[in-house]
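Hey L., structure's done. Input below.
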Amino acid sequence: MLSISQYREAFLDYLSEKITTKEPVNLYEPITYILNLGGKRLRPVLVLMTTEIFGTSYKKALDAALAIEVFHNFSLVHDDIMDSAPLRRGKETVHERWDLNTGILSGDTMLINAYQLFENYEGPVFKELAQLFTKTAIQVCEGQQYDIDFESREDVEIEDYLKMIEFKTAVLVGASLQMGAIVAGAPEESKKALYEFGRLLGIAFQLQDDYLDAFGDPETFGKQPGGDIIENKKTFLYLTALQEAEKADASQLEHLYSINPSDSIGKIEAVKSIFEQSGTSELTRKEIKKYTKQAFDVLDQIDLPENKKELLRKFGVSLMEREV
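Output:
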């Protein structure tokens, strides 16, 4: 088996080989642009790694890995349009660099391309990959709709938020692991267990992302500090603080999330102060550890040699210890 960085390099080589700009240029250039903006490539790496864990060459899973990455980036293009976001990974978003219509059409093409990549698999493998992908893609869209709905809802509960991030983020991590197992012809029980491992790890990953948005080092996190606070996003931190903070602080927090002052730094610091004083920041770290432990408990039960599980465990630990 390869190292995580070697799987990433192998995937990037395949990406550059397969994703090229062709005619009409204004349709395909935005696709190559977004796919070459970088990112961690977590999902395709998981597809490749899982395939080899079950004794099959990662090369057989390259098309499935590429399908996952193309779909993920399709969702980012359309998310950026819905959020009117000017930047993605520090660069202009597709709809800003080109225009709104191009962003929509290029995104649609990416979704179709993702499905097209599964045509390189035959019979039962094709069917199983396509069925999992369809279910996951619909859940991601449902998660995005929940996220949009939360902006105008005043009755969002922590359970609602956890369901939203499960659909919007975690199911794609679970599907990535399961796809590798499908390509390798792994036992049914192992496929399901790997999906559950990925789902739980994906929830922990998103909670960590929320935490870093508020408390991460802006030099390493790569995003605008306090972006979720500026956008009044009802994250786990916010919803937990409403429950844990003193009544006056909870009222102040609700007020801060109802305004968009020109002094965004002052708002961010005031909100972070409530998060810390209420114990919410510590509770969030505990929640991250809880889901990470649950994920590793599932991994422990999978019928695999310990040395093969270790690479997945190492991957999970690296996600939870990251600062970006």
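The first helix runs from residue 4 to 18. The chain is about 75% helix and 0% strand.

-- N.
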